[in-house]
Amino acid sequence: MGENTIALEELGDEYFQDPHTFHAALREQSAARQVVLPRGLKVWLVTRYDDARLVLADPRFSKDHTRLAPLFDKHLAGQGDRVHVDQVLAQHMLNTDPPNHTRLRKLVTKAFTARRVDQLRPRIQQITDELLDEITGRPEVDLVDALAFPLPIKVISEMLGVPMDRRDDFRRWSNILVAGTEPPLIEEAGAAMAMFLADLVADKRDNPGDDFFSALVHATEDNDRLDHAELTSMAFLLLVAGHETTVNLIATGVYNLLRHPEQLAKLRADRTLLPGAVEEFLRYEGPVNQSTFRFTTEEVTVGEVTIPEGEFVLASLLSANRDENRFPDGETFDITRPAGGHLAFGHGIHYCLGAPLARIEGEIAIGTLLDRFDLGLAAEPETLRWRSSALMRALYTLPVSLSARGPR
Description:
By secondary structure, the protein is an alpha+beta fold. It has one domain: CATH 1.10.630.10. It contains 18 helices and 11 strands. It has helices spanning 8-11, 13-17, 19-29, 49-57, 65-75, 100-111, 114-118, 121-135, 143-148, 150-160, 167-179, 183-206, 212-217, 228-259, 261-269, 274-284, 317-320, 355-372; strands at 6-7, 32-36, 42-46, 61-62, 140-142, 294-296, 300-302, 305-307, 312-315, 373-377, 399-404. Strand 7 (300-302) and strand 8 (305-307) form a beta hairpin. Helix 11 (167-179) packs across helix 12 and helix 16 packs across helix 18 (355-372). The model has no long low-confidence stretch (mean pLDDT 89).
């Protein structure tokens, strides 16, 4: 291993509990740095804002899944076998380049319209109210289990038509796949999810309803439509991206408000700050740590660093969003700052299609929570654990104390 290469495994759990200190040091040192991921894959990690935007948007950084697999095998030669997840889950638009990406996104956008998302507001509010009704009168709850997880999983499950009794299965499969550890479990979870989603697609073809996924299954553009494998992988992307990120937005947003009582007081005093506060939640402690894999199709210079052709590159969204050159005093949590332009939802053609839905869910969940309860952390911050995932920035639990707020 070269002297400038860092093995994340050697950093241990310290990296996952506090990636910000590590990222800040990397931003000072260079535009890109080679790191070795826990299973032995060597990648270039980009940590500065402008450089991350380049990686996310420049077509020289490809996401073509058909070329990723052999590249993984080449890079992992002698390091052990690549984890084989059912490839039907990989054929979604996040893993494609134009022109195929353009085709897929156009078809998905036909169903995932701004109007359809906005129409979900009353149902999101209803689910939130029902979940908060269940915890009213309890002195302490785990907010991840009580609100942050069940709200988005119910919303996306209803959009996809997933039966209520299978949602715990989805949570288990998703957590395993996102964590990226335990290869046998990953392969098992991927196979189970692929089989279930394929059956779901078949059912929506034969029995369409008035739901988003039925609209997606039957969406057409110039006599083109998504085939069975594309629909299965798209359902996988929507399910994982549609709930994992929002769980983290809600939980970490509340966590940081409770860690910064002066910011919480500002928000309570002026609820018009809430949309901007959500943007600061996303900037300061976004739900995604590092982007998904890209690889260089030719030699590319990032800042002062030249990355050869055929190399894996990851952009740290967490790090870019704290870059002082883009966000002055970026390590400070400030809900009144203009946080627009953050990279929590990505940038370029792969910008998150579900960003408007995540924002709506975050605003309704956190706004209603603050309307109904006075809150406090029910554990010392240093005892809370963050998931050991290079992809997601997520708390395992968020214990909070509750007391109902009376009429104001």
